[in-house]
Design brief:
Length: about 350
């Protein structure tokens, strides 16, 4: 089994930085207040000292036109010894454009906590390619700066995944979830949905494998590049895959699923884990493709909130996880940090 290098854990008082490697809305005038709410929460709730990289707050227009500036922030954040962790401000749709400017020796030689989701998957695959554990979880704008208050469920899993060397343990489903809200919303105006917990669609018994967390959209953009994980990485993995289902996008639509199946990734995997999405999407798209590939025994479980909703779990890539189909449970067997 491939062993990933884990970054050092975060501690109270550590300096961390925020980066805009994909979308640059954190620096736009209508989003700055939300950015500073997220920054304040990192400092007050987690005891971190937050600094911005040079280009983090230069706005969406500038950063769209300057992918090298985004990459420069990324490389500098990794190389600065005083910076202990990197928080992604938001996702987007063109993180892949920074690829020509990435020095992978810098990633390999500077293992460091990196957390984000959505188009952040592009950067996670840079860490995966380099053999370094990274953390699929909260973005600053969408999650940490969510309206009203940071959800206790999100706080719990950030602390367990980033601040502790104890095994992360059993992942309990959240009690309720809400779509990401980009407005300043009163608590009573948020539309919550009660969680139904986990549901097993196929598979029996227990399986173990290392986590590879993915967002379908950026993962599809990586097809044909060296960032798309090799068969050795997919082998014995548990694939956690999402794609903004909260916005009405069908998770890993039929074309994406067929493209991914053609790479062999599902045949190499030990299990597939999905967020809460409509039952018909799972059965008519995902299960349909898996069964056409002859993968009728591949465990498939849904209901873990790691997608475009609040609250969010944190998933450490490359870390060993157990899926128990008979008891519908998910347990991370080790820590994500050292």
């Amino acid at each position: 089994m491939i062993k990933f290098i884990k970054p050092n854990k975060l501690n109270i008082g550590d300096i961390v930085t925020t980066v805009s490697l994909s979308g640059g809305r954190a620096g736009d005038s209508d989003m700055l207040d939300r950015y500073y709410i997220g920054k304040q929460r990192l400092e007050k709730i987690f005891g971190l000292k937050v600094v911005e990289m040079e280009n983090s707050l230069k706005g969406n227009d500038y950063l769209y036109r300057n992918p090298k500036a985004r990459a420069d922030d990324f490389m500098e954040a990794l190389e600065k010894n005083e910076i202990k962790g990197i928080f992604l401000n938001m996702g987007g749709d063109d993180g892949i454009r920074i690829l020509p400017y990435i020095n992978f020796d810098i990633i390999k030689n500077n293992p460091k906590v990196f957390i984000g989701f959505s188009d952040g998957d592009t950067f996670h695959k840079m860490f995966t390619y380099s053999g370094i554990t990274s953390f699929y979880g909260a973005n600053l704008l969408a999650t940490i700066a969510e309206p009203c208050n940071l959800n206790p469920y999100t706080i719990k899993w950030i602390k367990k995944a980033l601040f502790s060397t104890d095994p992360i343990g059993l992942l309990e489903p959240c009690e309720r979830w809400v779509n990401i809200d980009w407005k300043s919303t009163k608590e009573e105006e948020l539309v919550w949905t009660k969680s139904d917990g986990y549901k097993v669609y196929q598979g029996t018994g227990k399986v173990n494998g290392h986590i590879i967390a993915c967002c379908s959209g950026p993962l599809k953009l990586m097809l044909g590049t060296y960032l798309f994980p090799s068969p050795d990485l997919w082998k014995n993995s548990v694939i956690f895959i999402e794609e903004g289902a909260a916005y009405g996008i069908k998770l890993a639509g039929i074309h994406s699923m067929r493209a991914f199946a053609a790479t062999g990734m599902f045949k190499y995997a030990k299990a597939l884990v999905l967020p809460t999405i409509p039952k018909e999407d799972i059965e008519e798209i995902i299960i349909k493709v898996l069964r056409e590939e002859g993968l009728t025994n591949l465990p498939v479980i849904s209901g873990l909130e790691f997608s475009h909703k609040n609250p969010m779990i944190v998933l450490p890539n490359g870390v060993d996880v157990e899926i128990d189909c008979d008891n519908a449970s998910i347990t991370i067997l080790e820590s994500g940090v050292k």
